[in-house]
Design brief:
31 strands; nine-stranded mixed beta sheet; UDP N-Acetylglucosamine Acyltransferase, domain 1; 31% strand; elongated; 20% helix; seven-stranded parallel beta sheet; alpha/beta; 8 helices; Spore Coat Polysaccharide Biosynthesis Protein SpsA, Chain A; single chain; 357 residues
């Protein structure tokens, strides 16, 4: 069995961060989301992975970050996509890589509780031609949506409907056999000008193929927006096994739900977990609150921050107000201004310098 990871797209809902980085490389609990997807695929025993990338700077950034897959013991094949022409288009351009084997298709910006190992085993052992993963969501109009028959078989699938027929959304994990290639050839572009994977799966249903809906009961997050990144970060932090590999001085208080990575230093500070402090990061005279990830080579000094994500090589110094609910990019400087401070809620792009008021 092979895997196909979709890692193209512009990430427009995460701008300005995605002007200078691929959205799939933004870390959740100090690990890029794309790396978590690869690890989930590896845990399911799959060793051949195709990665769809854009023909732009972000595509090259994905190549540079992932490499040939050696760190995970897998073989990576990159498949450039000229434009975001739909998920079914990704299957079409990956035809040579996929051959006639079964495969799992996984969106590279999704985080799911529990991984996919059981799903893969079920698909390999059952006589399904396709298996889709569904979960109940509050705003299904933003997703592909499934309507089920009374016997829980699939009645129909619709892409981003104005009036959703159910609250069951496709979560971006699909398993197919070779019949999907026939489906992709049979469908036409939607009103959006894209080849929709929902249309391809609907074609399989209408042709009488066995399409199995699996309803996921745990949490799942599409990390397409800043609020989703923070939610995913919180969920993953709760699942980490805490460890202290860096230095914590005697004046600091670090609770049992905190991870301090190698080379990090905690000086005269309070850190309440779940939280993670990245490699070679210094936290001095500061408070780091729950659900916070500070990536590598950062400095937090005389500041308070919680429920936030801070990317690499950033500095937060002498900040008079607590920072909360924030996603802060790479090489950012957040420093004190002389004016009276107010409550802060920030999404800062890479290389920003912010004077607080």
């Amino acid at each position: 069995m092979k895997a196909l990871i979709l890692s193209g797209g512009k990430g427009s809902r995460l701008r300005p961060l995605t002007y200078t980085n691929a959205k799939q490389l933004i870390p959740v609990a100090n690990k890029p989301v794309l790396f978590r997807v690869i690890e989930a695929i590896c845990a399911a025993g799959i060793r051949e992975i195709g990665v769809i990338i854009g023909m732009d700077e972000n595509g090259q950034r994905v190549r540079d970050a992932v490499g040939q897959g050696g760190r995970w013991g897998v073989d990576i094949t990159y498949i450039p996509q000229e434009a975001p022409l739909g998920l079914a288009h990704c299957v079409a351009i990956a035809r040579d890589f996929l051959g006639d084997e079964q495969f799992v298709m996984f969106l590279g910006d999704n985080v799911i509780e529990g991984g996919i190992s059981k799903l893969i085993r079920d698909f390999e052992q059952a006589e399904y031609h396709c298996q889709i993963v569904l979960t109940r969501v509050e705003e299904p109009q933003h997703y592909g949506v499934a309507e089920l028959n009374p016997d829980r078989s699939i009645k129909r699938l619709v892409e981003k409907p104005r009036n959703p027929p159910s609250d069951l959304a496709l979560v971006g994990i699909y398993m197919f056999d070779a019949h999907v290639h026939e489906a992709v050839r049979a469908i036409k572009p939607s009103w959006r000008g894209e080849l929709e994977i929902t249309d391809a799966i609907q074609w399989l249903v209408e042709q009488g193929y066995n399409v199995h809906p699996y309803i996921h009961r745990g949490w799942w997050i599409d990390t397409g927006k800043a609020i989703d990144m923070l939610a995913a970060n919180a969920k993953v932090l709760e699942e980490l096994t805490p460890a202290i590999a860096g230095f914590v001085d005697r004046e600091s208080r670090v609770d049992e739900r905190v991870t301090v990575e190698a080379g990090a230093e905690i000086i005269n500070s309070v850190i309440r977990g779940p939280a993670i402090i990245g490699e070679n990061t210094r936290v001095v005279n500061s408070y780091i609150g729950p659900f916070t990830s500070i990536y590598h080579h950062c400095l937090v000094e005389n500041a308070e921050i919680e429920h936030s994500v801070v990317l690499e090589h950033s500095k937060i110094m002498d900040v008079p107000a607590r920072i909360t609910d924030s996603l802060i990019g790479r090489n950012v400087e957040v420093v004190k201004s002389e004016l009276k401070p107010r409550a802060l809620k920030l999404t800062l792009g890479d290389h920003s310098v912010l004077g607080l008021i």
